[in-house]
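TA notes, week 10

Several of you asked for a full example with nothing omitted. So below is the full record: structure tokens for the whole chain, then the designed sequence directly under it. When grading your own attempts, check the secondary structure regions first.
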């Protein structure tokens, strides 16, 4: 699958970032869409390009445009990912229109999937819930739903949108640490498992379609690499 590098400038975020776009060799008239946040983590550590190549080679995935979206840097990630409205607007008002304009075959995509891990799993979920018709599926690997006293879980409890996305949530059975200091001004009071389970319970309580997996492992790229193929198979089954 050929891959092309682009740069997109965001007025909502007042910055620019790289996009890596993978296109089928002979794209059909209609293409499904996979948006993967945290491009550097996914590409360099999870090895998502290799995972995608394998799934395309055995025809598990077909007719799909893949867009990896850069996180820019760690400071930007800390700012944009914890349910930051400008980031959700960037996805809805700038990124998706850019994809449609440059790859028109995605305009009638049957499956529109957004994927993230840890903090970007939270960001992907927020963007999909805030703009409920934008994505059909969300893949969130070890999502950081503990953020801001589980704000996202509380904010959308009782909200039943007309076009709810389906969610794939997973988390490692060893992600049990509490009171974790990520920076001097950011503490995670509850475990990753508890945060994900609270979010799952909220979604199920409000009628969302949820697939929940606990994998054997921790908060690591190696473990996310093992679970990502199952998530993609679920999303594009």
């Amino acid at each position: 699958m050929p891959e092309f590098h682009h740069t997109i400038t965001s007025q909502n975020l007042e910055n620019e970032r790289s996009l890596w776009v993978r296109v089928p060799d002979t794209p059909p008239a209609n293409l499904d869409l996979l948006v993967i946040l945290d491009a550097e983590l996914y590409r360099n550590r999870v090895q998502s390009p290799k995972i995608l190549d394998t799934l395309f080679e055995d025809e598990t995935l077909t007719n799909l445009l893949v867009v990896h979206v850069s996180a820019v840097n760690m400071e930007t990630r800390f700012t944009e990912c914890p349910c930051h409205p400008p980031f959700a607007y960037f996805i809805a008002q700038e990124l998706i229109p850019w994809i449609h304009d440059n790859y028109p075959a995605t305009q009638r995509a049957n499956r529109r999937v957004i994927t993230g891990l840890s903090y970007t799993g939270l960001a992907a979920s927020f963007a999909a819930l805030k703009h409920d018709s934008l994505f059909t599926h969300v893949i969130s690997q070890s999502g950081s739903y503990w953020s801001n006293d589980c704000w996202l879980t509380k904010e959308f409890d009782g909200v039943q949108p007309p076009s709810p996305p389906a969610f794939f949530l997973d988390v490692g059975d060893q992600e049990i640490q509490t009171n974790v200091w990520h920076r001097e001004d950011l503490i995670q009071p509850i475990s990753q498992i508890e945060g994900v389970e609270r979010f799952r319970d909220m979604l199920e309580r409000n009628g969302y379609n949820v697939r929940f997996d606990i994998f054997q492992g921790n908060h690591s790229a190696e473990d996310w690499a093992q679970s990502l193929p199952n998530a993609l198979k679920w999303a594009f089954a």
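The radius of gyration is 17 Å. Use that as a sanity check on your answer.
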